[in-house]
TrEMBL record:
Pfam families associated with the record: DUF5722
Protein name, entry field: DUF5722 domain-containing protein
Location of region: Disordered: 684-708
SUPFAM superfamilies, sorted: (Trans)glycosidases
The DUF5722 domain, residue ranges: 338-720
InterPro entries hit by this protein: DUF5722, GH
Length: 726
């Protein structure tokens, strides 16, 4: 108002008192568009991210070595106080938080990350940051600078000091460091975080309680026959009512959350016989939606009262139960999967020439199967109409040709094939993208996401995609018998992201996905098996909160899930990398030989094998569950003769160890050829590709792997076994 006081003083005689009161307001209102334009000029959309050069001459280092590495900077900590100090530009006040973001590759993870604001460095200007989580692939790490908001400078640059924990010999890489304002996703996430945390904590407790509840009824069998669904069960407790109904639970429903029954809900009355048993027969031919992938069943008591939304509450009298047996008429007549025992396998088969597959004598192989944009419910360019369980869907022809080629390459060589089901994280999400397979709450830091089983259309698209793939890849030179459900789910933040969620909420989603894969594949191919994917970490002492989960807890939860909702023949796809991804001498791993071990590598894997042989861990037929060591390799640079020698020794050590474990079907070495996209790791049996040798020059480990299972293995092994028999 002071801006206009002189102007009004000169002209006050020209206006009535009421006009003098109103005109300043009118003047301000007239200038609002100008103010809005000025504000827009400082909006996040117009403030570009500012690149921060960690390799600047001004950069200060302590207990930290730094060197260029392709498009990144490689770091190695050399003492117990490693840090890097650098300047950032001024950070003008803004309604949004300032963020320091970077991409990191850090297989070991770094705890006790800290940030200091301004020199001289003092504890008063220090904030604790989230741990730099184990990242065995590139992921995004962000520092919320508002944690030290009072120390930021609006008018001049500021020195920051980023501390990388308290341990020496940590190796990691960083690239694309930027100073920016929080994006829309981060802003929305921050605003909703507190309410979301409380809601998730309640849901997590509800799911945990569900798995410990002793319901008065138990569904013992769900079976598909030629023209019906049979649901059988028995009373195991005191019944408080005879008003019981059997209902179908949908794809998006959480088992632990009581169902809401409305006019669309399918239900049938349940009558308990004198002996305490019941059986419900539901007419349903092969086209019935009640036989859809992911449908499961529960006995409830339905209230007579309507809620404001027109729903009736349903009190659960049994746990949810999945289909146990499928209609034999829907299955194809297929020969059993060839028996494997500690067989040689390989990931990334596309990197090998057909003659290389034969030369190595492989028996097993895997392909990454990207699920996104394979199937559409509506016509799209490049998509061909096809029938998926009696419904018209549209299939991406280019993507299928590419996948067909990779699967056929392995099958033509006689390999048993596995597919790793992946949903890439697009980083930017919009409700306009629905239906979408990507989980709507997936954080951009994740490489892949959990499937979207939140909204009906997206969940149905996921089911359609699985049904199509199960049919297409069920026989002949396109047959896939092993279906690995997503990647390293214990490291969910990076490899199967659905945002920060507590373990039981995360696993509810994953188990539903796993069950859908099992239903889709085993209905067509009775020999198909579904596998859970886990890293070598097992009993993490303090996993990053709501981002990582202890594999031991996950496996125990999966066993309990089968006991409550019906056992099914899942297997384990495990990645027993060495303790350090940078060192191939896995025989020197510092691991324990108990189920409380922090990790399972090849050195102590027999403990897991023994556990899998226990009664409680077995499949519905009492058999030991199948195991694939579906991804693991040994680091060796082509320029390091000692590392190359050790890598070859690790190959022989591997097969000495896994032959002791009867549960292991195959060991899929990762990878055939070194890759520039693995953060400096050189895991290949062959070196980096070149114009002269596109598939790289063979390392000694190539010959070692080739010899496994042949007459030359014993002689060649004697050259290397001194490495682990010292």
């Amino acid at each position: 108002m002071n801006l206009f006081s002189d102007w009004f003083a000169l002209r006050r005689t020209c206006f009535t008192p009421s006009a003098r009161d109103v005109l300043p307001v009118l003047a301000i209102l007239a200038l609002i568009p100008l103010f809005n334009s000025l504000a827009t000029a400082q909006s996040p959309s117009t403030i570009a991210p500012r690149s921060i050069q960690l390799s600047s001459e001004q950069t200060q280092l302590k207990h930290l070595k730094m060197e260029p590495a392709e498009d990144a900077i490689a770091f190695r900590t050399t003492g117990n106080d490693p840090f890097i100090a650098f300047q950032i530009p001024p950070t003008p006040a803004n309604e949004r938080r300032w963020i320091l973001a970077m991409e990191v590759f850090c297989p070991q993870g770094i705890r006790n990350m800290q940030l200091f604001y301004g020199q001289p460095w003092t504890e008063k200007r220090r904030v604790d940051l989230p741990h730099l989580n184990r990242a065995e692939g590139w992921t995004t790490y962000t520092c919320d600078l508002s944690l030290g908001q009072q120390f930021l400078r609006e008018d001049q640059p500021l020195w920051l000091r980023l501390d990388f924990g308290t341990e020496a010999n940590k190796r990691f890489r960083i690239r694309n460091v930027v100073l920016r304002l929080e994006n829309d996703f981060e802003r929305r996430q921050n605003q909703e975080q507190q309410e979301r945390v409380k809601r998730l904590e309640r849901l997590d407790e509800q799911i945990a309680s569900y798995y410990q509840t002793q319901f008065p009824l138990e569904i013992t069998r769900v079976e598909h026959t030629a023209d019906a669904i049979l649901v059988a069960g028995k009373a195991v407790g005191q019944l408080s009512t005879a008003n019981l109904s059997l209902i179908a639970r949908g794809l998006t429903e959480i088992s632990a959350v009581p169902a809401k029954v409305n006019s669309k809900t399918f239900f049938r009355p349940v009558r308990i016989d004198a002996d305490g048993t019941f059986i419900v027969r539901i007419p349903a031919d092969q086209e019935s939606k009640l036989r859809d992938t992911g449908v499961r069943w529960q006995v409830v008591s339905i209230s007579s009262q309507l809620d404001p939304e027109g729903n009736r509450s349903a009190t659960p009298f049994s746990a949810v139960h999945h289909v146990d047996r499928y209609d034999a008429a829907e299955a194809k007549e297929l020969s059993p999967t060839p028996k494997l025992r500690a067989a040689k396998g390989m990931t990334c088969l596309a990197e090998l020439a057909p003659e290389h597959v034969e030369e190595l004598g492989l028996a097993h192989g895997s392909v990454n199967l990207v699920l996104s944009h394979l199937v559409s419910p509506t016509p799209r360019r490049g998509f061909q109409a096809t029938q998926v369980r009696g419904r018209e869907r549209y299939v991406n022809q280019a993507a299928m040709r590419h996948l067909d080629h990779r699967v056929q390459k392995g099958r033509d060589a006689g390999l048993v094939m596995a597919a790793i089901l992946l949903i890439p994280n697009s980083r930017t999400k919009s409700t306009d993208d629905l239906p979408s397979l990507e989980h709507p709450n997936a954080d951009p830091a994740g490489t892949y996401t959990m499937p979207n089983l939140v909204d009906e259309a997206s969940a149905q698209l996921y089911a359609d995609t699985l049904d199509f793939l199960a049919e297409r890849y069920s026989e002949g030179n396109l047959r896939i018998d092993h279906w690995i459900v997503h990647n390293e789910i214990d490291a969910g933040w990076q490899w199967t992201n659905m945002g920060e969620v507590p373990m039981h909420v995360y696993l509810d989603h994953y188990f539903r996905s796993m069950r859908m894969v099992d239903a889709a594949t085993r209905r067509v191919n009775p020999h198909a098996r579904t596998f859970i994917s886990l890293t070598h970490h097992w009993n993490l002492e303090d996993p990053p909160h709501w981002r990582w989960y202890a594999s031991k807890d996950i496996m125990q939860a999966l066993v309990r899930h089968g006991e409550v909702e019906g056992n099914f023949p899942w297997g384990l796809a495990h990645h027993p990398y060495p303790e350090s991804l940078w060192e191939s001498d896995t025989w020197n791993d510092n691991v324990e030989f108990t189920l409380d071990a922090s990790m399972f590598t090849l050195k102590n894997w027999q403990v897991l094998d023994d556990w899998l042989h226990t009664e409680r861990l077995r499949d519905p037929e009492g058999k030991v569950r199948a195991v694939l060591l579906s991804e693991q390799g040994f680091h060796a640079s082509e320029t390091d003769p000692q590392a190359l020698e050790q890598q070859a020794a690790a190959v022989f050590y591997t097969f000495e160890q896994i032959r002791k474990c009867k549960s292991i079907l195959a060991f899929d070495y990762h990878r055939p050829v070194d890759s520039r996209a693995e953060g400096g790791l050189h895991l290949g049996l062959r070196g980096l590709g070149s114009p002269e040798q596109p598939r790289g020059a063979p390392k000694p480990a190539w010959d070692a792997y080739k010899s496994i299972g042949t007459s030359t293995e014993s002689n060649l092994r004697t050259h290397y076994e001194s490495h682990w028999k010292q």
